[in-house]
Write a structure and sequence with these properties.
Strand order of the largest sheet: 1-2-3-4-5-6-7-9
CATH class: Alpha Beta
Number of strands: 11
CATH architecture: Alpha-Beta Barrel
CATH topology: TIM Barrel
Number of domains: 1
């Protein structure tokens, strides 16, 4: 089981990606290198109807610890049903410790269940605070925090505070959030949190309108907000290679082979339609184009499991994969990129 240590409200060196509980993201967690797994605490956002347990049985995360956010799930009608406590017990049977994510809008009953789940193993939880939604000023934030901690029966020292700015879609967003974030961090510094991290996301919710058969760049405004703050002890979190904005409804069209490839200041988006109708050929051509590009890492296939899969398909066409495969390779590379930047101490390189 992974062990994370820190002293008070200091950066604990842990990267906290907010991920959807889907096959692609979980496959990337399953293939983390052992050293990387110790420095990643995934936060899974559950949807109504999501049954994450079978996926975790099939694709156990190498981190050994998961934070799980139940905030989007409806309140159970049966007062004896406690989803967070039930899942914590089931994950414990699989050797995975769970940290419940506390949300401002959750009921007293759900917060109490989260507290029980937190005390099951590590006596830790994540408080996910979205300032633009949850509190307009420090006084409101203080009231909110007191309610949440009292409801869960936990102290600030047992809480990893996650300040979630959500969507950072453009330069104007990034500039506005920078000053807001400084004020929020001054407020957060008044409590002895176990750790403080800042999250936001800049990936668009829909890539279907982007050009095909050529790499297209999207700025990583989320990483730039964190880098420009440069406050000691503040950890990094993001939404991986997905958008904070959830797409509703079911996609009816067949997806093109697509990779979301993380670089220092941007993502390179590859959507491939050429080379006829065979998916194997399209994926092979996409991967071959990527590995010959200037942003292919010097370590090549050794950079991450996802990069090894991309390199393998660049050499031949053993299978086009699926949308889950492309997401898993992209997420694997992204996590490796962030961890190497954090390890180097280069905030601008995240």
């Amino acid at each position: 089981m992974a062990v994370f240590t820190t002293a008070g409200s200091t950066q604990d060196g842990v990267y906290r990606p907010i991920l959807r509980p889907r096959r692609g993201e979980l496959a990337a967690l399953t293939h983390l290198a052992a050293g990387d797994a110790r420095r990643v605490l995934p936060i899974l956002e559950l949807d109504e109807g999501t049954d994450v347990l079978p996926l975790i049985r099939e694709l156990p995360p190498r981190t050994g610890v998961l934070a799980v956010d139940f905030g989007e799930l409806p309140e159970p009608t049966d007062p004896l049903v406690a989803p967070s406590l039930d899942l914590a017990e089931e994950l414990a049977d699989l050797g995975v410790a769970m940290l419940p994510v506390l949300r401002a809008h959750e009921s007293r009953r759900r917060l109490a269940a989260h507290g029980l789940a937190a005390r099951l193993h590590l006596r830790r939880a994540v408080l996910r605070l979205q300032p633009h939604v949850d509190a307009a000023n420090p006084a409101q934030a203080d009231v909110l925090v007191e309610r949440v901690l009292r409801g869960a029966g936990l102290d600030a020292e047992e809480i990893d505070l996650l300040i979630d700015l959500a969507e950072t879609a453009c330069v104007a967003h990034a500039d506005r959030f920078e000053e807001q974030l400084r004020r929020i961090l001054r407020w957060a510094g008044g409590r002895p949190w176990r750790s403080i991290s800042v999250a936001s996301g800049a990936m668009p919710p829909n890539l279907d309108e982007l050009p095909t058969d050529q790499p297209v760049t999207i700025d990583r405004h989320d990483a730039r907000v964190w880098a420009r703050i440069d406050v000691p002890g503040i950890g990094y979190a993001d939404y991986g290679v997905t958008s904070p904005v959830r797409r509703r409804g079911v996609q009816r069209h067949r997806q093109l082979p697509t990779l979301r490839y993380t670089a220092e200041h941007n993502w390179w988006i590859y959507r491939w339609a050429r080379r006829g109708g065979r998916g194997d050929d399209r994926c092979h051509d996409l991967c071959r184009t990527l590995v010959s590009s200037p942003h292919w890492p010097a370590a090549g296939a050794r950079f991450s499991w996802g990069d090894a899969e991309i390199a393998r398909r660049a050499r031949s066409a053993p299978g086009a994969g699926s949308s889950a495969s492309w997401m898993s390779w992209s997420t694997s590379h992204h996590i490796a990129h962030v961890l190497r930047a954090l390890e180097s101490g280069d905030r601008t390189g995240v």
